[in-house]
């Protein structure tokens, strides 16, 4: 027995491939949507991985430091470091802001890393070019997603930083590239706005008679000086010694009333559960719509392909072809269409994914699930056409 | 199957299907978890690392003189302005004397009066003395009574006492006058040293309290730098080391200097060691006080040791180390003990690596012991 | 009559029920011997198409008897179960238009029927080639239907009708679109095939050009058939 479906496809292969390609673009879009979602989740995961921390110590009753702003005194790390099981406790600041380089502005997450050496929590865990920061000020390590190169001079608030190293895939949970600078500079950047704001603040302080007492020389300078100092950081990153359980180390820190401690699963829950929950729901809805649209389009395509052949189907039925054979022909064509569409879609998605501004992660599991979904949709869509075909009266072939 | 692929149609089918499948295979293998990770590799060399310390500081003056009145008053006039050079002893300004001149005149008058009283007392004393002498002589001649002489003696004593009192009064009045004059002098603001006026805090007519600075002077030759170094990386900082200074306003110029001393009191809050750096030669024009500078202190070079770039250092399972590439591109994590590094990113390794080891420097993503790697010259996506 | 051929006795077909019932066929009697080619003539509305559908085992009659070869396929309410297999194996169709499957080549168009009946592909193609040769279109064996002329396509259609060696072939207006030369050719072929393969052929037609060639003709009017002698003119 020859394959009727195969012969039909070979005979009109151009139309088939063309239709399959069109379907493939739709499938490609669906795969990319799924990739966008996975990319968002991966952004969150990568953010946590790259921080090198086992515990995040933040201001009490906040979801910080990524989901909510948190502020802890910058000398608190010493108390945290003295808790048994803490191998290392380091300060870190995060601030999403505009970083200027030459003529352009890039939105980046500026990470303030405490003086130390590579391998400390908060420091970039690996580089793709250049070196890690060695000077305590005015050096930066930037992610290549920001578009900076080695040697570029960045302007962050009032200081200039030279890019000495480059990283890859160091992004915030919303996909903004990270720029690592020394902690002291970051504290100043987070706090000191710009010169105009500083002058306004100074004038306001001078106008306040409480601070500007003639009988107390030096008071005004002292107050203005204290306003220009920032003694806070956003979080303390803790690395736990391998011999200790993370929960055992977190418990005593949590007991102090002024601090909140999150471990890795909790941070993932916060990032993925709260930060990207709305976006993921949105994407989920979009995926469902795409799937429905794809199903409808496949059904329509198969239906019209079948209707084009309705005369031949009547003849086939008249000369004695089994219903089964005719149904199989239609279903095989639908599946072939789906496979062509999927191959085109996967290739399209793979080629297009790096072009998106945010990270698009295509994983094999989504592709496998996609194949099965496409095949299922094709089979279901073909049922409509099969029903039509089987209802055809073979007597129509005999005119009248 | 053969019949299907005959002829032009068959060729066209192959022409379309094969690239499609090839693409598909490429897409499956090159992306996703199956793809090998691109890494760059360097060979460990033995050389001597010349560590340097980097700190920032502000330009300051060693001696800052805050000139002001010692008591509350009003500023009468100021003779100098910011930027003027002054000599030692030069009058810079004056507080309002208010009633001082009057008081001086009053005390002068009192002194004159005391002087006059003294002269009167002295005259009386002289007179009493001469009287006494005469009468004592007469007493020897037994011409007068003992009592008369006694009275005259008493007169003399009284006159002596009065004279002393008058003297004391004069001295007191003079002292008062001197004191008032001294305080009047004090109303004048005088430069204690030759130097430069750097601040003029109030204008004439302003009332100031005791101790409030009206003018500020510095000795320009005593400019130095308050530098701060992160404690964690400031080992080896000591007085006498050479330093390279870069002013924020003159980024292209590097000035030379020397570490004068390390402050015994570190800043516990900011965790910085403070040091004073002096210029070998004062830059001209002088940098303003408070200008930011960057200071690099070069330490003597370390003995030769295996050196790795600091980009190669990672932390795995709590240990600090590097990934070493063994035969057949197998990865192995080697824990190392690090020595000092220089400011360009080279770090000496005290223990764990030997010269000639090949280590992973840059990777396009995080790697583990079982990652497949492919060695490249440059990580893709990084423009030179 | 011997085993092959087709015989119909008292066939009736009623559509609908009760007062609105229509008797499309009232009393049809036909018999065609193997190797015979008869004509079936009737105006539209005469029940001709209903008769054709009954002959083609597409619809089921209401009463009567149909015997195909040695097999009773309908007898007053009883009918053979698998009409489709019957059509595949026992009845050949030739239509007005060739109705070849456009995506199969000529050989496969013809070989499809034996393949559907379970024959192996190579044997089916060999059988197809036999018939194509008999109809003198074997030189087009690997062409696609769209590449053939109308006459060639018709001959391929006839080959398809014959390929399963059915006892009866129903030809529905096979010469309607053709000119007299080609129409004669078709009739000549049909007669030759009927003899060669011992098939009974019923040709439904109203083409004046070929009616004289039939030796026997059935007329159908108002659901009743009448047999008639034909001229039996030789093919020219």
Number of helices of chain B: 3
| Poorly predicted parts of chain A | none
Structural classification of chain A: alpha+beta
**Quick check: average pLDDT of chain B?**
85
**Rg from alpha-carbon coordinates of chain B:** 45 Å
The proportion of strand residues of chain A reads 15-25%
Helix content of chain A: 40-55%
Q: Could you give the distance between the termini of chain A?
A: 31 Å
Strand order of the largest sheet of chain B: 3-12-15-14-13-16
* Secondary-structure-derived class of chain B: alpha+beta
Secondary structure tally: strands of chain B: 24
Secondary-structure element string of chain A: HHEEHEEEEEEEHHHEEHEHHHHH
Largest interface, C-beta within 8 A:
A-B, 53 and 58 residues
> C-alpha Rg of chain A, in Å?
31 Å
Distance from N terminus to C terminus of chain B (CA atoms, Å) equals 52 Å
Structural description of this entry:
The complex is a heterotrimer of chains A (400), B (384) and C (236). Chain A has 400 residues and is an alpha+beta fold. Helices cover 51% and strands 18% of the residues of chain A. Chain A contains twelve helices and twelve strands. Chain A has helices at residues 4-11, 13-50, 76-81, 183-191, 195-207, 219-227, 246-255, 264-275, 277-308, 310-319, 323-352, 364-391; strands at 55-59, 72-73, 86-101, 104-113, 129-130, 139-143, 153-156, 159-167, 178-182, 232-233, 235-240, 259-263. In chain A, helix 1 crosses helix 11 and helix 2 (13-50) runs antiparallel to helix 12 (364-391). Chain A is elongated and about 115 Å long. The mean pLDDT of chain A is 86. Chain B contains three helices and 24 strands. The mean pLDDT of chain B is 85. In chain B, helix 2 packs antiparallel against helix 3. In chain B, a hairpin with a 4-residue loop joins strand 21 (337-341) and strand 22. Chain B is of the alpha+beta class and 384 residues long. Chain C has 236 residues and is an alpha/beta fold. Chain C is built from six helices and eleven strands. Chain C has a six-stranded mixed sheet. In chain C, helix 3 (106-116) packs parallel to helix 5 (150-162). Chain C is globular, with a radius of gyration of 18 Å. Chains in contact: A-B, A-C.
């Amino acid at each position: 027995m020859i394959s009727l479906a195969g012969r039909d496809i070979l005979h009109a292969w151009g139309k088939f491939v063309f239709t399959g390609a069109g379907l493939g673009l739709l499938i490609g879009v669906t795969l990319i949507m799924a990739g966008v979602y996975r990319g968002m989740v991966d952004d969150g995961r990568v953010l946590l991985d790259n921080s090198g921390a086992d515990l995040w110590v933040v201001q009490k009753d906040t979801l910080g430091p990524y989901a909510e702003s948190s502020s802890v005194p910058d000398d608190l790390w010493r108390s945290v470091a003295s808790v048994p099981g803490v191998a290392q406790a380091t300060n870190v600041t995060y601030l999403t802001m505009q970083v200027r380089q030459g003529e352009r502005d890039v939105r980046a997450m500026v990470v303030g890393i405490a003086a130390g050496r590579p391998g400390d929590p908060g420091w970039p865990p690996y580089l793709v070019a250049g070196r890690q920061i060695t000077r305590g000020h005015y050096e930066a390590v930037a992610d290549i997603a920001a578009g900076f190169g080695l040697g570029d001079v960045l302007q962050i608030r009032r200081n200039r930083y030279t890019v000495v190293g480059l990283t890859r895939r160091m992004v915030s949970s919303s996909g903004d590239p990270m720029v690592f600078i020394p902690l002291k500079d970051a504290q100043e950047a987070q706090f000191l706005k710009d010169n105009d704001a500083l002058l306004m603040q100074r004038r306001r302080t001078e106008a306040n008679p409480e601070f500007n007492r003639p009988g107390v020389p030096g008071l005004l300078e002292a107050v203005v000086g204290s306003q220009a100092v920032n003694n806070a950081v956003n979080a303390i990153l803790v690395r736990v010694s391998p011999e200790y359980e993370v929960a055992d180390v977190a418990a005593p820190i949590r007991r102090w009333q002024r601090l909140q401690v999150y471990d890795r699963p909790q941070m993932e829950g916060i990032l993925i559960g709260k930060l990207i929950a709305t976006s993921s729901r949105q994407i989920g809805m979009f995926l469902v719509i795409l799937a429905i649209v794809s199903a409808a389009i496949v059904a329509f395509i198969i239906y019209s392909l079948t209707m084009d052949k309705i005369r031949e189907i009547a003849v086939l039925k008249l000369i004695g072809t089994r219903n089964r054979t005719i149904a199989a022909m239609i279903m095989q064509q639908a599946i072939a269409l789906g496979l062509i569409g999927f191959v085109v879609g996967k290739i399209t998605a793979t080629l297009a994914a790096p072009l998106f501004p945010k990270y698009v992660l295509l994983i094999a599991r989504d592709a496998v699930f996609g194949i099965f979904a496409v095949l299922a949709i094709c089979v279901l869509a073909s049922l409509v056409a099969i029903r039509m075909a089987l209802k055809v009266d073979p007597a129509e072939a005999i005119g009248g | 199957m053969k019949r299907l692929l005959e002829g032009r149609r068959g060729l066209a089918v192959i022409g379309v299907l094969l690239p499609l499948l090839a693409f598909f295979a490429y897409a499956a293998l090159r992306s996703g978890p199956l793809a090998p990770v691109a890494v760059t590799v360097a060979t460990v060399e033995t050389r001597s690392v010349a560590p340097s310390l980097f700190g920032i500081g502000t330009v300051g003056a060693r001696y800052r003189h805050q000139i002001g009145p010692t008591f509350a008053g009003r500023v009468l006039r100021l003779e100098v302005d910011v930027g003027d050079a002054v000599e030692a002893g030069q009058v810079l300004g004056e507080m309002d004397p208010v009633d001082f001149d009057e008081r001086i005149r009053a005390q002068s008058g009192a002194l004159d009066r005391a002087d006059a009283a003294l002269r009167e007392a002295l005259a009386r004393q002289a007179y009493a003395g001469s009287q006494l002498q005469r009468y004592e002589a007469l007493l020897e001649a037994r011409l007068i009574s003992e009592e008369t002489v006694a009275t005259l003696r008493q007169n003399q004593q009284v006159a002596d006492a009065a004279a002393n009192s008058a003297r004391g009064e004069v001295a007191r009045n003079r002292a008062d006058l001197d004191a008032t004059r001294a305080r009047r002098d004090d109303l004048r603001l005088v430069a204690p040293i030759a130097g430069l006026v750097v601040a003029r805090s109030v204008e004439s007519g302003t009332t100031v309290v005791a101790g409030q600075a009206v003018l500020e002077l510095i000795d320009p030759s005593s400019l130095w730098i308050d530098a701060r170094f992160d404690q964690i990386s400031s080992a080896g900082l000591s007085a006498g080391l050479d330093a390279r200074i870069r002013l924020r306003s003159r980024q292209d110029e590097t000035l030379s200097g020397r570490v004068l001393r390390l402050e015994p009191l570190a800043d516990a809050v900011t965790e910085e060691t403070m040091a004073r750096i002096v210029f070998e030669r004062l830059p001209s024009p002088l940098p303003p006080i408070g200008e930011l500078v960057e200071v690099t202190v070069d330490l003597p070079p370390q003995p030769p040791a295996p050196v790795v770039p600091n980009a190669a250092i990672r932390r795995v399972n709590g240990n600090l180390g590097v990934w070493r590439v063994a035969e057949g591109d197998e990865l192995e994590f080697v824990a190392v003990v690090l020595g000092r590094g220089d400011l360009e990113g080279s770090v000496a390794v005290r223990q764990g690596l030997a010269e000639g080891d090949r280590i992973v420097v840059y990777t396009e993503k995080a790697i583990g012991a079982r990652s497949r790697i492919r060695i490249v010259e440059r990580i893709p996506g990084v423009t030179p | 009559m011997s085993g092959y051929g087709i015989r119909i006795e008292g066939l009736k077909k009623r559509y609908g029920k009760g007062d609105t019932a229509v008797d499309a066929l009232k009393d049809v009697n036909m018999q065609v011997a193997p190797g015979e080619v008869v004509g079936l003539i009737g105006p539209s509305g005469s029940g001709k198409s209903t008769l054709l559908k009954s002959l083609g085992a597409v619809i089921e009659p209401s009463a009567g008897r149909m015997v195909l070869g040695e097999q009773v396929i309908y007898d007053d309410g009883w009918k053979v179960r698998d009409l489709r297999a019957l059509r595949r194996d026992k009845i050949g169709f030739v239509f007005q238009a060739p109705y070849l499957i456009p995506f199969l080549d000529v050989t496969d168009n013809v070989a499809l029927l034996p393949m559907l009946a379970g024959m192996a592909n190579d044997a089916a193609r060999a059988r197809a080639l036999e018939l194509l040769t008999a109809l003198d279109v074997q030189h087009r064996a690997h062409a696609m239907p769209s590449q053939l002329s109308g006459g060639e396509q018709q001959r391929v259609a006839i080959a398809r009708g014959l390929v399963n060696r059915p006892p009866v072939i129903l030809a529905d207006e096979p010469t309607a679109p053709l000119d007299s030369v080609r129409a004669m050719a078709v009739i000549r072929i049909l007669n030759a095939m009927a003899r060669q393969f011992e098939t009974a052929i019923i040709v439904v037609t109203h083409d004046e050009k070929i009616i004289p060639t039939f030796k026997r003709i059935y007329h159908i009017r108002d659901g009743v058939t009448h047999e008639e002698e034909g001229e039996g003119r030789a093919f020219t």
